[in-house]
Amino acid sequence: MGRKWNNIKEKKASKDKNTSRVYAKFGIEIYVAAKKGEPNPESNQALKVVLERAKTYNVPKAIIDRALDKAKGSSDQNYVELRYEGFGPSGSMVIVDALTDNVNRTAPDVRSAFNKSGGNMGVSGSVNYMFDETAVIGLEGKSADNVMEILLEADVDVRDILEEDEAVIVYAEPDQFHAVQDALKTAGVEEFTIAEITMLAQNFVTIPEDAQAQFDKLIDALEDLEDVQQVYHNVEFDDED
C-alpha cells in the first residue's frame, strides 16, 4: 500500500519545483472556496479544507489574506470548476481538475497538452470511476498504533492507517477529513505533513522506463497550464526507498 503515499509525495515534490505558480493557484482556489460561502473557515468547510492543504505547501499568509480579502470585497470574477479525464502512455490514467474564468480556453489547452505528450483526452467518466475521492492526512512523531488508538477513542472511522517513511498516513472518507484532524490536534499534533482530499487510483501501473520521460512531460504540461489546479494519475513510482 506504500504506493499511495509515494505518489502523493511525488506530486508534492513536483509542485515544489515552482512555488510561485503553486501559490498563485492556491490564491485562486482559496478565493473560489471563500466565494462559495462565508470567507470564514469555521463556517465554510470547503474553505477550511483548502486552507489546511495550503499549510502543508507553506503558502505565505499574505497570499491567503489577499485571496480572502478579494472574496470579501466587490470582485465579481467568476470561476467554473471543470474536470477532464484522459489517458497517457502505457495504460496510465489521468484526471485533471481546473478552475477557469474562460471555459473556451481551458478545454483546448488541456487537449493540446495531452496530444503533444503522447496521450489523449477521454470522455467524461472514462477514467474517474477508477479513482476514489479520499481524505489523506499525514503526520510524524506518533506510531500507527498510537494514531489508531486516538481515532478510536474519538469515534472517527477511517479506511486505513499506514506507517511509511517515518510518517503515519491516515486514509479516510472525505467527510471524515476534519474529524481526523480535530482528533489528532486534540491529542497534541500541531503540524501535518499532508492534509488534503485527493483522488487515489484503485489500481496502479508501472510504466516502462522508456515511457517515463513522455509521462513526465504530460504531467508537467498539464500542471503548467494556468487553469489547472490538480492532476491525479495511476502511475506507481519505483522510488520505494
TrEMBL record:
Top-level taxon of origin: Bacteria
Alphabetically ordered keywords of this record: Cytoplasm, DNA-binding, Transcription, Transcription regulation
Subcellular location: Cytoplasm
Domain TACO1/YebC-like N-terminal: 3-73
Keyword Transcription regulation: yes
Pfam families the UniProt entry points to: TACO1_YebC_N (PF20772), Transcrip_reg (PF01709)
GO molecular function: DNA binding
InterPro entries associated with the record: Integrase-like_N, TACO1_YebC-like_2nd/3rd_dom, TACO1_YebC_N, Transcrip_reg_TACO1-like, Transcrip_reg_TACO1-like_dom3, Transcrip_reg_TACO1_YeeN, YebC-like
Family per record: Belongs to the TACO1 family. YeeN subfamily.
UniProt cross-references to HAMAP family, sorted A to Z: Transcrip_reg_TACO1, Transcrip_reg_TACO1_YeeN
NCBIfam families named among the record's database cross-references: PRK00110.1, PRK12378.1, YebC/PmpR family DNA-binding transcriptional regulator
Protein name (record): Probable transcriptional regulatory protein SY83_17135
Organism expressing this protein natively: Paenibacillus swuensis
Taxonomic classification: Bacteria, Bacillati, Bacillota, Bacilli, Bacillales
